[in-house]
Amino acid sequence: MSYFAAAVARVEGAWTAGEVSLRGVTDIEEVADRLRDVEPDADVSLLFVEADDTYLVILRLDEGEDLRVFGSDSAYAEESRLGALLVGDLKTSVTGLEDVDEPRPSTGDEESEQPAVDPEADPVGDADLLADLGIPAPKLLALSGSEGMMPADVTAEVCQVLGCADEVEELREV
Fold first, then answer.
1. How distant, in Å, are the alpha carbons of 15, 33, 81, 132, 167 from that of 91?
2. CA-atom Rg of the chain in angstroms
3. Which of 43, 48, 64, 173 could anchor a disulfide with 155, C-beta 3.0 to 4.6 Å?
4. pTM of structure
């Protein structure tokens, strides 16, 4: 299973980004260590792991501590060793999907339509991990569960809100 892992770290209000290799990691703490290494003095560090255009995992460290994890679908744990490592220990599904707005009937105005939420998705972990950065749990759940939204699209949307979209896009172009 192929993956793309991009870290963004905020130090004194400015974001930096770097690609992170997860090759050879043996546990979630080793993943957290690699995230810490991107910018050891970061106030906030985020790692976006996109796998096979299907799954998204977001990890967050505040001042290098208190690891929080969100996964777009618990099925990732069954699909790969990396998925099991990242989301396999997240026992509870995210609640609050019922708070996500239901798609509206088509009015012919494509701008006002919302994407349908994938009923097969089973998000896990802490959907509130980006709430203080401008992306509350219902918005993250809607983004990650929207049919047709690829993990890269969700990462781009989140990074746009955070103000680090250009930095992450540069990593993709390398």
1. 32, 23, 17, 24, 33
2. 16
3. 48
4. 0.86
